[in-house]
Amino acid sequence: MLNDGIKLKRFLKTNKVLISTILLVMIINGNGYAQDGVAGINEANQKVRSYFDAGTELMYAVGAILGLIGAVKVYQKWNAGDPDTGKVAAAWFGSCVFLVVVATVIKSFFGV
């Protein structure tokens, strides 16, 4: 085991030029397959726009789930007679409204 490590270190030390040349050829060869920058940006733009409706629906679903969880938490506090029930209800309601507003604003801002 130890000899293998020593042999590898010796190989790397003596063949630095060979290894550098191989890596350089691999990098140069990879550049030949690159696409046009503008085409890549346009393709990414179209892919993001195609996922946007699903993301908006996901935000609405998360808002609905948070609304249900918040309703249960507020109900529990109300039944326990907590004095800060109104604050907790406002916080949960505000978070749900925030999610819906953010999804709508982002949708209209980007024109999707």
From TrEMBL:
Membrane spanning residue stretches: 58-76, 88-110
Transmembrane recorded as keyword: yes
InterPro entries: DUF4134
Keywords: Membrane, Transmembrane, Transmembrane helix
One Pfam family matching this protein: DUF4134
Domain of life: Bacteria
Entry protein name: DUF4134 domain-containing protein
Annotated organism of origin: Flavobacterium potami
